[in-house]
Amino acid sequence: MPFKLAVTNIILALFGISVIINYRKIKTNFSIILFLPILLYVLMLCSIFWTIDAFETQKALSKEAFLLVIPVLFAIIPQFNQNQINKITKYYAYGFVIFAVFFVFRATIRFFILKDANVFFYHQDQNKDLGLIPKDLNAIHFSVFSILAYVYFLANEIKSFWQKMSLAILLVFILLLSSKNIILVILIITFIYLFYFAKSANRMRLRNLIVFVLLITSIVFFGRIKKRFEAEFLAHTAKSLSHNVIEGVPDGVHYVSIYEAWHQEKFSPNDYFPGTAFRVYQARLFFEFISEEPIFWTGFGLNASYKKLEEKGKKYNIYQGTGNDDGYQNKNFHNQYIQNFSELGIVGFLLLVTMLFVLLKRAVYNKNFIHFTFSIVMISVFLTESFLWRQRGVVFFVICYCLFMSRNYKTE
To answer: pLDDT digits over 122-178, tens only?
Structure first.
């Protein structure tokens, strides 16, 4: 996952070749579970017939082809049992510990050269050589990749010294990546594990979970905390739960509130959208598209919504960008649910939701905490990112989906 995209393609090609070579020795195990991502890709492929931007749709089809290729390969190879899945996640977890140590060590060296503490946080922006990881890796995506490694060590009841060290390293690394959404998720996941999944809480799981939910609810919805959330809705502030889509904001700009993002009729190039406000603005555009365009059943076509988003951006006079950035009108929806609905219609939306539903249902039924974490993280990150519209995102999702959902219970 952290290497160049060409490396990912080469490794997946080797995976495919190994499957073809051994094809006669193994039996296929197609199931409706593995067909769901394939059906999503077939819908993407069919959208070429109604897309409003054939060039963008054709360009995106090759990137999304992993939704077809990887499930087919998993349907041909033998199913994994739980011990094999544990071994795979073990290698994955230790691999990401190595990456975490490498990037922190790299940032330390760059700190002594550049004398700027920003080398330890987030990813590098377009204008400065600062950030913990390169920009093309994306701090949000890398946080998602790292959280599964963190959970592997968390879920080990008896931890060695090195496992405890690995757990601490990954936690610090995720915090340094500074994805507020993922940090919130990792705190919730940790509490859920301690209160519900851990063997030490076996006799008090339900009670602890109920207490935890009531505690979170009381914190969010009562007293001064509730007033603070209400104030944040109307505040003109740079602080945001979601990451900002344009970096390096100059002084003197007007920070758009969530309320303004949803209601304001006209903006100016001096209006800056913090992350959450921008996502509210994009959601607003989606509902306008639903009422104005015939997209409920078919959508605009795969990757074809950019043209319409650009038109809306000009209509509302949002910041159009300069030579250093693209402006807001060239950004995707930053919400996978809306992205699917707007480009593939209600069927594309329902296929995505169905995959997430069966993921979570199987995880709860099997009481597999890593599988459960993957489900929760995907449900969460899809709210703030068009995760599957990036090659690393779609590869990560479909491989983990197939790995967890094609588990062989007959051999256990």
So the answer is: 877 655 677 888 888 888 889 999 999 999 998 887 778 888 999 999 999 998 887
* C-alpha span between 133 and 139 (Å, rounded): 7
Contact residues for 246 (Cβ-Cβ < 8 A; gap 6+): 272, 273, 319, 325, 327, 328
Q: How far is CA 357 from CA 266, 268, 296, 364, in A?
A: 39, 41, 22, 11
SS3 content of the chain, % helix, strand, coil (to 5): 70, 0, 30
Q: Using N-to-C axis directions, what is the helix angle for 336-366 and 305-315, rounded to 10°?
A: 120
| Inter-helix orientation angle 223-234/205-221, to 10° | 50
Count helices and strands in the chain by DSSP H and E runs = 16, 2
Instruction: Name the residue type at position 147.
Output: I
Residues 6+ apart with CB under 8 A from 88: 80, 403
Mean pLDDT to the nearest integer, 85-100: 93
- For residue 99, what pLDDT is reported? 93
DSSP of 64-112: HTHHHHHHHHHHHSPPP-HHHHHHHHHHHHHHHHHHHHHHHHHHHHHHH
Structure tokens at 370: 């890593």
User: What's the pLDDT tens digit per position in 355-379?
Assistant: 999 999 999 888 888 999 999 999 9
Do residues 339 and 332 make contact, with C-beta atoms less than 8 angstroms apart? yes
Q: How far apart are CA 147 and CA 149, in angstroms?
A: 5
Helix (H, G, I), strand (E, B) or coil at 271: strand
Residues across the chain: 412
Expressed in angstroms, the distance from the first to the final Cα of the chain is 30
- Could you tell me which residue, 313 or 205, shows the higher pLDDT? 313
DSSP-derived letter for residue 190 is: H
The rounded distance, in Å, linking the Cα atoms of 241 and 299 is 29
Radius of gyration of the chain (CA): 22
Mean pLDDT value across residues 53-68: 94
| DSSP per position, 376-402 | HHHHHHHHH--GGGSHHHHHHHHHHHH
